[in-house]
Specification:
Shape: globular
CATH superfamily of the largest domain: P-loop containing nucleotide triphosphate hydrolases
Strand order of the largest sheet: 3-2-4-1-5-6-7
Amino acid sequence: MSTDAEHAELVEELLAGKHRALARVITKIENRAPGYRDLVSELHRHTGGSEVVGITGSPGAGKSTLVDKMAEYYREEGETVGVIAVDPSSPFTGGAVLGDRIRMASNVGDMDVFFRSMSARGTLGGLSTATTDAVKALDAFGKDKILIETVGAGQNEIDIVKSADTVAVLVPPGSGDDVQMLKAGILEIGDVFVVNKADLDGADRTVQELQEMIHMQSDHTANLATGHHGADGFEGADATGDGEDEDDDGWQPQIVETVAKTGEGVEELVETLAEHRAYLEESGLLERKARMRYAEEIRNLLRDDVGSLIEAEIDRHGGMDELVEGVRTRETDPYSVADQIIEPIEDCVDDAGEK
């Protein structure tokens, strides 16, 4: 069977609800197999029906257990679930260190909970383009809820905003360092903050510290309103680029206490996530966030493609080692090398523009 015919059959089976086809498509996406871009392009027109929630936070906060309980709750409500767990990349294989681990203990055997562990591939924030494409596959398949659980690497987790409509940040109790870490930037991406393991000592203190930080963030005189409801197209921002500011009061981040291992607080968390979704829809932010997300996706793809062209041009000039040696011996300089590499690409663009 030709590649085109195989891909057409895969898409047809995926859209028909066959999990085996979904798994094969995501494998092709993750491996960047020949023709995977055509697959994603075909699936894109069938997306837009899923709710995407990002779950992030420091290691040990209980993300996996909470995701398991959330999936169980959604299933009890009759909804289907897709889970993408972004794991640390192996320095040897580039694959997920934890592999296809069995962490969804409450949902083993339930075909309507699709779990996939993926490698972060060293990307900033732990979310690779492959992960974004995998979310599209789950969306096209028809999963009602898609949960993205990320590595929890601190401020770099801000990247999750590009793939999720709602972001929940987990903070374990009594973790002063973790709360301090939030000040470094991750505070501004959280729509909901979850104090998990709330049955442990220090939970009340952690909740209080989060409340104070959220209050400071909302107080513009505190100089901490750094973009969660502002610069990125939220409160008071011209997100659509039409020159008109929004009068929206914005979403005040909520704090929910949970004990994931027993399921305590999971219902309240799910309800709070639903409230945020309703807010996004009613305020028009959901559509604006989608516009920003697609703009960033296009930019990233263009950067990757142009980067590949540049790598090919470097090889054509003898490789990076030869170019570097010329700079080291002062026969040329980095700016001249860059101009030399980019010139034929610029010429092609100029020629195309003149046609």
